[in-house]
């Protein structure tokens, strides 16, 4: 049984293009990322057209699927709803995470807004912690350039430990390299966040006690338990039965070490790691100007001041 499967096929299919195209059995490429980063443009580039738009089982959230030929191979391409985090708040994020966990993707592409790279890297670190087969697409590089931002993607790739590509999907810039990253993809172990002693100790003890197989790493499961993820908690409780109480005890004991919620403590640790990277890989030109709408957008996208 899959980790979060709802056990029903997708429903209310609205077909566009050739509805008869068969994708069953093809390796899956899943596009993830927050809203308004250009995922649908990337999807159209890879597939040439929308094929099916259907509601995810038990929800009104639409998922778009198509088929694309990259090199000499065909892939099923899935455009997921917008998500900011693997710790879901909205129904769209829950659906996006379910697709990641249930559908065994060959490649996960995080499409990110280059000008908001600081905010985007939180999801990147979560995907790396989950040991997902991920590479990072820094899209909207033209908009970043207009703001005077420069990003050393080669150095960013070295810092993260996963493939990084820069694109402007609307005009096709960088998209040939994007396709090559999919066809030649090799999973890599990304950079790990080093949390403080109490969090690391709790995560290690949780991992050692977790039983069974999960679609993501046991370290990611442990961190989500510490962050009080209700779906993960329910799944682990079902698998662990009476032994689950020992996991709850670890989580509750760890909470006593902090005055703030563990989710906040873990997020701040990731933010520190991200800022170390940002200082190395980005530069800003004084010539770059930012209008009021852009300033407001970046404030709302900030991991602490923003509201997802």
Descriptors:
about 300 residues, globular, Rossmann fold, single chain, eight-stranded mixed sheet, about 45% helix, Helix Hairpins, two-stranded antiparallel sheet, alpha/beta
Topology:
Layout: E1 11-15, E2 28-32, H1 39-47, E3 52-55, E4 62-70, E5 73-79, H2 91-102, E6 107-113, H3 117-129, E7 134-139, H4 141-146, E8 149-151, H5 153-160, E9 164-166, H6 175-183, H7 197-209, H8 218-226, H9 230-240, H10 244-255, H11 262-281, E10 282-284, H12 292-301
Parallel strand pairs: 2-5, 2-6, 6-7, 7-9
Antiparallel strand pairs: 1-3, 3-4, 4-5, 8-10
Helix pairs in contact: 3-11, 5-11, 7-8, 7-10
Q: State the secondary-structure class.
A: alpha/beta
CATH homologous superfamily of the largest domain, by name?
Answer: P-loop containing nucleotide triphosphate hydrolases
Number of strands: 10
List unreliable stretches of 5+ residues.
5-10
**Radius of gyration, in angstroms, nearest whole number:** 20 Å
Question: Largest sheet, order of strands side by side?
Answer: 1-3-4-5-2-6-7-9
- Beta-strand content estimate: 15-25%
Tally of contiguous helical segments = 12
Q: Largest sheet, described in full?
A: 8 strands, mixed
Mean pLDDT: 88
Oligomer description: single chain
End-to-end separation in angstroms reads 31 Å
Global outline:
globular
Quick recap of the structure?
Helix content is 43%, strand content 17%. The chain is α/β, with parallel strands linked by helices. The model is unreliable at 5-10 (pLDDT under 50).
Describe this structure in words.
With about 300 residues, the chain is of the alpha/beta class. It folds into two domains: about 170 residues, P-loop containing nucleotide triphosphate hydrolases (Rossmann fold), CATH 3.40.50; about 100 residues, Helix Hairpins. Helices cover about 45% and strands about 15% of the residues. The protein contains twelve helices and ten strands. The strands form two sheets. Strands 1-3-4-5-2-6-7-9 form an eight-stranded mixed beta sheet, with helices on both faces. It has a two-stranded antiparallel sheet with strand order 8-10. Strand 4 and strand 5 form a beta hairpin. Helix 3 packs across helix 11, helix 5 packs antiparallel against helix 11 and helix 7 packs antiparallel against helix 10. The longest helix is centred in the last third of the chain and has 20 residues. It is globular.
């Amino acid at each position: 049984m899959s980790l979060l499967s709802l056990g029903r096929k997708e429903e209310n299919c609205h077909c566009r293009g050739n509805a008869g195209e068969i994708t069953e059995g093809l390796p899956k490429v899943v596009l993830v990322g927050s809203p308004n980063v250009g995922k649908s443009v990337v999807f159209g580039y890879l597939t040439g057209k929308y094929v099916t738009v259907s509601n995810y089982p038990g929800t009104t959230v639409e998922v778009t699927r198509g088929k694309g030929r990259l090199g000499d191979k065909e892939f099923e391409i899935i455009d997921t709803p917008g998500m900011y985090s693997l710790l879901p708040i909205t129904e769209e994020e829950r659906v996006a995470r379910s697709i990641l966990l249930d559908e065994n993707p060959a490649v996960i592409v995080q499409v990110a807004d280059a000008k908001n790279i600081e905010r985007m890297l939180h999801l990147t670190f979560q995907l790396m912690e989950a040991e997902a087969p991920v590479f990072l697409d820094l899209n909207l590089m033209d908009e970043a350039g207009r703001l005077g931002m420069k990003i050393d993607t080669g150095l960013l790739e070295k810092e993260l430990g996963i493939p990084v590509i820069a694109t402007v999907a609307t005009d096709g810039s960088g998209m040939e390299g994007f396709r090559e990253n999919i066809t030649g993809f090799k999973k890599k172990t990304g950079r790990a966040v080093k949390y403080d002693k109490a969090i690391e100790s709790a995560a290690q003890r949780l991992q050692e006690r977790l039983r069974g197989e999960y679609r993501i790493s046991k370290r990611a499961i442990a961190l989500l338990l510490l962050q009080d993820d209700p779906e993960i908690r329910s799944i682990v409780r079902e698998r662990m039965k009476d032994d689950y109480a020992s996991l709850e005890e670890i989580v509750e004991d760890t909470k006593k070490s902090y005055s703030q919620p563990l989710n906040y403590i873990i997020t701040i640790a990731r933010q520190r790691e991200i800022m170390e990277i940002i200082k190395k890989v980005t530069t800003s030109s004084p010539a770059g100007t930012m209008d009021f709408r852009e300033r407001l957008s970046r404030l709302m996208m900030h991991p602490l001041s923003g509201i997802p």
